[in-house]
Amino acid sequence: MLLEDYLPVLVFAIICIIFPPVTYFLNRLFRPTKKTPLKDSTYECGEVPIGTAHIQFTFQYYMYAILFVAFDVVVVFLVLWALVFDSSMSYVALASVALFVLLVGTAVGVSLKKEKEVLI
Amino acid sequence: MSSWINLYNISYAIGEFLMGIVAAILNFFGQWIGPLSDFADWLMSVNVLNLVAIFIGGAAVMVFVSIINLFIIMWIERKMYGRIHDRRGIMLPGPWKKTHKGTGFLQNLADGMKLIQKELITPKNADKWMYDIAPAIIATTSILAFVAIPFSETFYVANINAGLIFILAILAIAPLAVVLAGWSSNNKFTLIGGLRGAALMLSYEIPLILSVIGVILLSGSLNPIEIVHAQQQTSVLGVENWYIIPLFPAVIVFMVALFAELERLPFDLPEAEAELVEGWLTEYSGMRFGLVFVSKWVRTYAGAALITILFLGGWSGPVLPGELWFIIKSYIVFVIIVWATWSFPRSRIDQIVRIGWNWLIPIAIISIVIAAAFKWVGWF
């Protein structure tokens, strides 16, 4: 049953996965390849690049990534809750979901308040 | 209205015909070589024909989505934003008039031909394997989303129960590829662009899914076909209850989040031309760039199709067949997306993040509460 449902997905996924390599390969027939040292250097608007970009630096979006992980759990729980929601649901179930969302929402709000301005 | 095309049956018939020819040839040679007849019998068995039918159906959807449909929507966008800029847009390589009154419909084909002939440049310092694979991930996942998007009751590749989750999950893989591309190019512009893109996509992933929860709540299903069926029932208002009416805030949130997911203009900071050259795409050239460039429109159409399915009643409509209604509605949504894209100026990164977290998420949660209230009262 599950295999029957997901067999088309598998077949389509195989088509989609072989599509970019086939494009690259076909492209090889049409394009020239003439390597020069200048062409292969990193593009920085004509300047000679100083150092590499593989460095350690302050990742200003770190907080948002953490918040995303926290909030994504809420979203997953909400999807499951919404799937089984109907009017025969008890008040306890409603209240607990509301409390859960409120708690995580407050936590996110507080941590966003503390977050400094993002610059880059 | 009933739909025209039963994709599975048609592709099964085509597959049976083609395999019949192959089997006949094999049987002809099987007079002398025994095993070939057995192989022909195996080719005509139901399981193999089923697989062939799925393959043909999938290929048909892929050709439609990534070639025919793509040319039309790219043409609409380029012509339309030309008009919004008060110029005529693409006009010369059209099939008919080659003057300023021309349609320019073949411009995208010409651009494709141009990109095919361009040299692929890999920077010396780049991480080559990651650099190659990032555009492939984006192209693959963009087209793969269409496996679960039904164009009508019978025109789909796969009818899976968790279709909606599948589509959202597949479309959410892109930030990974963006970071990969940004990091592996070993260029400061691409690095900043990639990280911005990832932050943006992560921030707006949450409102996107939160705004869909209202639909899941009202329809009680994750299957796109059943979501449309739920919208075809008559509501208290006496019309089909398309979810755009009860969930209007959710539609707005979904739209805005979609713009960020697609890196479209009010939120196109990852490739802000004025500051970052071309963002995380700076080092890409030739067909690698072409794949990403084209995937952007494929994803946009996927977004328009999602809005059509979730909020606009999918393929339901009078007189015309379902597939046509679906395409009309999704094109209208696409035109609205293009209109909004080219009407707004670019916003700053802190503004964007603030809009996402401080406005969209609360609005989305309010829309869930509204949906729950409607369902509780029994209106929907």
Short note summarizing the structure:
Helix content of chain A is 63%, strand content 0%.
So what's the oligomer here?
heterodimer
Instruction: Please bin the fraction of helical residues of chain B.
Output: 55-70%
| Global morphology of chain B | globular
Largest sheet of chain B: none
Largest sheet of chain A at a glance? none
Uncertain stretches of chain B: none
Assess the beta-strand content of chain B as a share of residues. Answer: under 5%
What is the radius of gyration of chain B?
23 Å
Cα distance, first to last residue of chain A?
50 Å
Radius of gyration of chain A: 25 Å
Strand content of chain A: under 5%
**Quantity of strands of chain B, as a count:** 0
Estimated helix fraction of chain A: 55-70%
What is the H/E order of chain B? HHHHHHHHHHHHHH
Compressed to H and E, one letter per element, the order of chain A equals: HHH
So what's the overall shape of chain A?
flat
Keywords:
heterodimer, A: 120 residues, mainly alpha, 63% helix, flat, B: 380 residues
Please describe what this structure looks like.
With 120 residues, chain A is mainly α. Helices cover 63% and strands 0% of the residues of chain A. In chain A, helix 2 packs antiparallel against helix 3. Chain A is flat. Chain A starts with a helix and ends in a 6-residue tail after the last helix. The model of chain A has no long low-confidence stretch (mean pLDDT 80). By secondary structure, chain B is mostly helical. Chain B contains 14 helices and no strands. The chains are: A mainly alpha (120), B mainly alpha (380). Chains A and B meet through helix 1, helix 2 and helix 3 of A and helix 3, helix 5, helix 8, helix 12 and helix 14 of B.
